[in-house]
Amino acid sequence: ATIALDEAAAVWITSSWRKVTVQVHSEEELVELHEAARARGLRSHLVQDSGRTEFGGVPTLTALAIGPDRATVIDEVTGHLVIY
Q1: What pLDDT does 38 receive?
Q2: Rounded to an integer, what distance in angstroms lies between the CA atom of residue 53 and that of residue 30?
Q3: Among 18, 25, 26, 29, which one has the highest count of C-beta atoms within 10 angstroms of its own C-beta?
Q4: In this structure, is the dihedral angle defined by the CA atoms of residues 47, 51, 55 and 59, taken in order, positive or negative?
Q5: Among residues 28, 19, 33, which one has the least CA distance to residue 78?
Q6: Are 27 and 84 spatial neighbours (Cβ–Cβ below 8 Å)?
Q7: In the chain, what percentage of residues exceed pLDDT 90?
Q8: How far apart are CA 7 and CA 29, in angstroms?
Q9: pTM
Q10: What share of the chain is helix, strand, coil (3-state, %, to 5)?
């Protein structure tokens, strides 16, 4: 099967596949970043852990994937965060 990619995804796939990990201090901050990314028209996906190993079986939002897109655009949302 063929998957159609927009320009940003095609550039990401055919070039560096850059991934940057940054840290937040709360689940609320993670959700706020997700909402800020979506408000700018970025792809943004919250990742929910089942909680089986660390959170006593309580599903918890543990990660956020933003992009692919140009670094300058993503930095508008995440540029203030410290690299982890």
Answers
A1: 97
A2: 20
A3: 29
A4: positive
A5: 33
A6: no
A7: 56
A8: 29
A9: 0.81
A10: 35, 20, 50
